């Protein structure tokens, strides 16, 4: 059982792990062991998460999400399989926890008169600095 929050727990049966050979340092050892982990979680058909959370997860523009609604996390940071498994699971928990937080809607506001004034004064100063850089400046 993968505990995400107090109200969200994902059973092991919903997680699909595949092990593969990792690239990177390790010498001959890296060519013989399957230490990299690919963790798959089917967001679209999981009964463990609410419909609201499912929609937020599927709506995210995450390159790890397939068209079928499967979240694929690859972990190959460490040299041993157990640490990569833990890393993949921790990253899955992080993705789901981020989706539980509902973003507040941004209220569009107009810039204040003072901020407009500061912007224009800054533009004028910058223009004056740049005008002194002309090729003809300083020659007589």
TrEMBL record:
<dbReference type="InterPro" id="IPR000352">
    <property type="entry name" value="Pep_chain_release_fac_I"/>
</dbReference>
<dbReference type="GO" id="GO:0003747">
    <property type="term" value="F:translation release factor activity"/>
</dbReference>
<feature type="region of interest" description="Disordered">
    <location>
        <begin position="105"/>
        <end position="140"/>
    </location>
</feature>
<dbReference type="Pfam" id="PF00472">
    <property type="entry name" value="RF-1"/>
</dbReference>
<dbReference type="GO" id="GO:0043022">
    <property type="term" value="F:ribosome binding"/>
</dbReference>
<dbReference type="GO" id="GO:0004045">
    <property type="term" value="F:peptidyl-tRNA hydrolase activity"/>
</dbReference>
<feature type="domain" description="Prokaryotic-type class I peptide chain release factors">
    <location>
        <begin position="21"/>
        <end position="37"/>
    </location>
</feature>
<dbReference type="GO" id="GO:0072344">
    <property type="term" value="P:rescue of stalled ribosome"/>
</dbReference>
<protein>
    <submittedName>
        <fullName>Ribosome-associated protein</fullName>
    </submittedName>
</protein>
């Amino acid at each position: 059982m993968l505990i995400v929050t107090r109200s969200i727990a994902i059973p092991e049966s919903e997680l699909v792990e595949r092990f593969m050979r990792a690239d990177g340092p390790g010498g001959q050892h890296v060519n013989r062991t399957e230490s990299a982990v690919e963790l798959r979680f089917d967001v679209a058909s999981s009964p463990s998460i609410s419909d609201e959370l499912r929609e937020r997860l599927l709506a995210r523009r995450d390159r790890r999400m397939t068209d079928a609604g499967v979240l694929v996390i690859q972990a190959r940071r460490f040299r041993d399989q157990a640490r990569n498994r833990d890393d993949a699971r921790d990253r899955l928990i992080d993705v789901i926890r981020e989706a539980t937080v509902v973003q507040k809607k941004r209220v569009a506001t107009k810039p204040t008169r003072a901020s407009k004034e500061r912007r224009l004064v800054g533009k004028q100063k910058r223009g004056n600095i740049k005008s002194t850089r002309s090729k003809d400046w300083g020659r007589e």
